[in-house]
Design a protein that fits this description.
The complex is a heterodimer. By secondary structure, chain A is α/β, with parallel strands linked by helices. Chain A has 26 helices and 35 strands. About 5% of the residues of chain A have low confidence. In chain B, strand 3 and strand 4 form a beta hairpin. The chains are: A alpha/beta, B alpha+beta. The structure holds iron/sulfur cluster (SF4) (2 copies) and FE2/S2 (inorganic) cluster (2 copies).
């Protein structure tokens, strides 16, 4: 719907403005820049700083009014350059600077600081304040990641507003009043939030800085490229910045389709793990009877190729298995998928071990993130955005505040449960009525429904998860689906996983049919001769270290990895892989949007891209993958007939966020990227300072004011999973005496090799916690803070917490190698609870 | 000295119930905490946050805004000597100096025995009795060295216990929710009026 317009007069020019927007936005639209500090386009206006004063004509003459705080109105007459406005700007700046330390030369914000810039542009250049300025202890760590230099603060309320309004975690607030107003945490309660880094990004001065970036670089020394965070499949748009061949920081770009400028800390600070050379695999190495030796790439690849060849010749192609982790680029994934299916011809591949759902359900009628947030009803099905797709949690919170009606379907409540319309538990004791309740909660409003479907709860088997979702979709047939899987979209799209159905596959050779669990089980039985672990730690699949050792004795493990892990320690052949920021390419996010990855630094040591390794291995195996460059892969994917048909890098020049796939999907683009140096200092200001850019990688707003993308035809119709194999309600085998249902849900900071390599984030790793409904705890005699032992397929020792939310039974928070031991292959995990002696 | 005692907790819960939004009870609960401990302790702020559904940082943000809510320990009697214009003209600064000598503490400090905290305050609207002072917000004046000394010794001896309760005690906070009037009754009364 086109915006309604009103007639206005700005500085004597008659113009039209969008009705209902803030005056400051209307002025921006008209190309008139008004200085500002507190106003942030993604947060509510507060009128705190008074920097944006303009003169507005009213019935009683002109008066100074904050343009960020008033709505534009028909017939409004505004003056932004009058003497009164100038005087007001001088006054406000002088006032703000009165107590400001002016320590720009040692301040991290210097060079990209809105206060500095606006003091130059609008200040009077003189101060009349000769008194002693205020002093505070500094810097104050308000969390492990954020430091506060109080005297630089201009009390704009951005950080506190972010914490309260956007993140919903008001752990920082103003304390005091007047001249001693200051940002403060409470006593010893840290600003412990998944989203804390955003406050440093939006602080308009150098009062809040991140520990990893503090004193690391000067902004004018940074070079940057547009990229996409790959820590989860939200695909947040970032400016990746580096200095002297080291990644220095990541800033969120305001992509209207995806992240609205926010990032989570897992993503923002992932640069620190890439930089941590001690935890990186830097050179190829082989293990033989004498121990481990560093070798050349050629030697390592020859060894790998001959092992694979021998395995195929002696034991057949299925004796070669490929397990892949989740940080591979789309191109890497495709190259390996093609190698496995067309060259090795094995069916034992799984690049999406975390996807425990039938991929075709996710693609039949896909919704974009913005469509999901604008739907009349959104059903969150078995997904925990905060822990799996963190920035989506922020987008959802904003949408819910704006009136989005959400029905949440989960076995264990999430941090959204308190603010959604309805929470419907998936109760293993009463599965039959789950979907009935969901449909009932939609109040017959079945027309504009989006279902966001995930596989959060590890205790739910893939078939049960698929069956429940299938039933829901068949009861709400017009529902669109947004994928809620946090990792593995690339693998699904190219068909590099058994959970990827035919219709979306881009490779045509041997189809994957063994999943990660069956591959690992076969390997433990000695049925796999060669196991290629692509950026994947086998311990993350529920193996114990002992099992890993015995597995690696029977199976040749080839590990291609960026980070050292238990798997690289025990593998026979270890190959260094380039990490995030070290290679170009592209990736897909949950809405099947094609996003670019920027290369900002050279790979450490001898690390190479996974697709190159695949290409070389193929030729050593006497075959060719048929591509020499990334562009060859793109071209091949474009013609593959899968959902990526029509793929092309040229779309990035039309639309920086990239197109949605399949290309037949239409999308209204309301706003191109906003690179507002006042909203996100550091993204645009670097460009302004004329630093160089990696060619073809420029971060810049597009010229075109907004257009609808809609290109090409749908490649082929997708298979209908909901009409076919979907079983009706599954009956679980009831519990026997002493057994309990268990849920196992992930947290953002669950131990993984990458996280352990991150010196800052590894401190956030916590032991798994068993949250127990109070009634169950009483029945089992489990004390709050005590310990117990869970016995399922394996066993695990865990700490107990009594639930403060609607947890129904036993909810184990924390997916770690230890807790995954509990999972078997049943539809829902059952455990026995033993008091621990400790 | 900590979270609300059982008795205080039930009063706190009553206060929370007075408001449609529990957060509105933040300031009354801070006063209650001050009545219990003489000042608003960290533990009390954390407890208040639980009771009104906010975070301790927010409670601290609110409490630290107001001069009448103390976040640090103060004496049983907080003596505020006014030095604003009317009092100043009538010798407020001398009175303040005398107070410092009598109590043997500088402005802003608390006596060793924890009985008195001395403050300098702006006009307390007791100008007709200038130079004036307040003790736990009860007014005294006009004061000179002698009458100040006698005020202090009366406070010490407990002679003024009735008049000046310990710091933090606020009668106004002792409020009770009126009995809920059923809607039907209101309707009935209205109907009656209309006739
Ligand atoms: S710390 Fe920064 S963001 Fe927060 S109020 Fe101060 S100036 Fe604003
Ligand atoms: S939400 Fe996901 S994509 Fe976005 S910053 Fe966090 S980890 Fe990266
Ligand atoms: S008051 Fe308008 S930007 Fe701060
Ligand atoms: S000036 Fe002292 S009470 Fe008014």
């Amino acid at each position: 719907m086109p915006d309604e317009l009103v007639a206005v007069t700005f500085d004597g020019h008659s113009l039209q403005a969008r009705k209902g927007v803030k005056l400051i936005d209307a002025l921006d639209d008209a190309g008139i820049n008004v200085p500002r500090f507190c106003y942030h386009p993604r947060m509510s206006a507060v009128g705190m700083c008074r920097m944006c004063l303009v003169e507005v004509k009213g019935p009683r003459g002109v008066s100074l009014q904050p343009s960020c705080y008033i709505d534009v109105a028909d017939g409004m007459e505004v003056f932004t350059e009058s003497d009164a406005v100038k005087k007001a700007q001088h006054g406000v700046l002088e006032f703000l600077l009165a107590n400001h330390p002016l320590d720009c030369p040692v301040c991290d914000k210097g060079g990209e600081c809105p206060l500095q810039d606006q003091a130059f542009a609008h200040g009077s250049g003189e101060t009349r304040f000769v008194e002693e300025k205020r002093h505070y202890a500094k810097p104050i760590p308000i969390s492990r990641l954020i430091k506060l230099d109080r005297e630089r603060c201009i009390q704009c309320d951005r950080c506190t507003r972010f914490a309260d309004e956007v993140a919903g975690e008001p752990l920082i607030d103003f304390a005091g009043r007047g001249g001693t107003l200051r940002i403060s945490t409470f006593s010893n309660v840290d600003f412990d939030s998944y989203f804390s880094g955003n406050v440093a990004q939006i602080c308009p001065v150098g009062a809040l800085t991140t520990t990893p970036y503090r004193f690391k670089a000067r902004p004018w020394d940074l070079i940057q490229s547009a990229s996409t965070c790959t820590q989860c499949d939200m695909g947040c748009q970032v400016s990746l910045q580096s200095s002297q061949n080291e990644l220095t920081r990541m800033l969120g770009i305001d992509s209207d389709a995806i992240n609205h400028s926010w990032l989570c800390d897992r993503g923002r600070f992932s640069t620190s793990e890439v930089n941590n050379v001690e935890h990186r695999v830097t050179r190829p190495r082989l293990k033989d009877q004498d121990g481990t030796v560093d070798v050349s790439w050629t030697k390592a690849l020859r060894a790998a190729a001959s092992t694979i060849k021998r395995a195929i010749d002696e034991r057949g192609a299925s004796a070669v298995a490929v397990l892949s982790g989740t940080s591979l680029t789309l191109e890497d994934t495709y190259a390996w998928a093609k190698l496995a299916s067309d060259v090795v011809r094995t069916n034992a591949v799984d690049g999406a071990a975390d996807v425990r759902i039938d991929g075709s359900l996710l693609l039949e009628n896909p919704a974009s993130i913005n469509e999901a947030l604008a739907a009349r009803r959104l059903v969150l099905f078995n997904v925990d955005p905060k822990n799996e797709l963190p920035v989506l949690h922020l987008r959802l919170r904003a949408a819910i505040r704006a009136g989005l009606r959400v029905v949440e379907v989960n076995a264990v409540p999430t941090d959204l449960t308190a603010i959604v319309d309805r929470w419907i538990p998936i109760d293993p004791g009463n599965l039959g009525t789950t979907i009935d309740s969901v449909v009932a909660a939609l109040d017959g409003d079945l027309d504009d429904v989006v279902v966001m479907a995930g596989c959060r709860d590890r205790a739910l088997g893939a078939s049960l998860n698929t069956a429940l979702l299938g039933e829901l979709l068949s009861r709400v047939p017009r529902a669109k689906v947004l994928s809620g899987i946090a990792h593995g979209t690339n693998a699904l799209a190219v068909g590099f996983a058994p959970s990827a159905p035919r219709g979306i596959r881009s490779i045509s050779g041997v189809e994957p049919s063994m999943n990660a669990d069956s591959i690992v089980a076969a390997a433990l039985r000695g049925e796999i001769a060669v196991l290629v672990a692509l950026d994947s730690d086998l311990m993350g699949l529920g193996l114990t270290e002992d099992e890993l050792v015995s597995l690696s004795e029977r199976t040749t493990v080839i590990a291609l990895s960026s980070f050292e892990s238990a798997t690289t320690r025990h593998a026979t052949i270890v190959l260094p892989m380039s990490a995030f920021g070290e290679q170009q390419g592209s990736t897909l996010n949950i809405e099947w949007r094609h996003l670019r990855l920027g290369r900002q630094v050279e790979p450490v040591g001898q690390a190479r891209s996974a697709w190159m390794v695949a290409t070389e291995l193929a030729s050593m195996l006497g075959d060719e993958l048929g591509f020499m460059t990334l562009a060859d892969i793109t071209r091949e994917l474009a013609q593959s007939g899968g959902i990526l048909s029509g793929l092309g890098l040229h779309y990035f020049s039309e639309r920086l966020d990239g197109p949605l796939f399949p290309l037949s999907r239409k999308e209204e683009i309301r706003m191109q990227r906003v690179l507002d140096p006042m909203a996100t200092p550091g993204v645009a200001s670097i460009e302004r300072q004329g630093a160089n850019f990696a060619a073809g990688n420029v971060v810049e707003p597009s010229e075109s004011p907004g257009f609808a993308v809609g290109m090409g035809e749908t490649p082929k119709s997708l298979p209908s999973a909901k009409s076919s194999a979907v079983a009706r309600v599954i009956e679980l085998e009831p519990l026997s005496e002493g057994e309990h249902w268990l849920s196992l849900v992930p947290r953002l900071y669950d131990s993984s090799p990458e996280l352990l390599a991150n010196p800052f984030l590894k401190l956030a790793i916590r032991e798994p916690v068993l949250v127990v409904a109070p009634a169950v705890a009483e029945e089992l005699g489990l004390e709050d803070g005590g310990h117990c032992r869970l016995v399922g397929a394996g066993s695990a020792e865990v700490t107990v917490r009594h639930a403060k939310d609607q947890t129904l039974f036993l909810a184990l928070h924390g997916v770690t190698p230890a807790t995954q031991q509990l999972l078997g292959d049943q539809s829902w995990v059952k455990v026995r609870v033993e008091k621990s002696n400790g | 000295m900590a979270r609300f005692s059982d008795e205080m907790l039930s009063r706190a819960e009553e206060l929370v119930a007075l408001y449609p939004d529990p957060r509105s009870a933040t300031i009354p609960l801070c006063h209650l905490a001050q009545e219990q401990d003489g000042y608003v302790t960290n533990e009390a702020m954390a407890h208040i946050a639980e009771l009104v559904g906010s975070t301790a940082a927010e409670v601290q943000g609110t409490a630290s805004f107001y001069d009448m809510l103390k976040l640090e320990p103060v004496g049983r009697y907080v003596i505020g000597v006014c030095t604003n214009i009317a009092c100043m003209l009538r010798g407020a600064y001398e009175l303040l100096e005398n107070a410092e000598e009598v109590l043997d503490v500088p402005v802003g400090a608390t006596t060793q025995d924890g009985l008195f905290t001395l403050e300098e305050v702006e006009c307390i609207a007791h100008c007709d009795q200038a130079p004036a002072a307040q003790v736990n917000y009860r007014y005294f004046g006009p004061l000179d060295r002698q009458s100040f000394e006698s005020l202090v010794s009366k406070l010490r001896s407990g002679e003024l216990n009735e008049e000046v309760p310990p710091h933090g005690t606020l009668i106004r906070i002792r409020r009770e929710a009126p009995a809920v009037i059923p809607m039907e009754e209101i309707d009935r009364n209205r109907a009656g009026e209309a006739e």
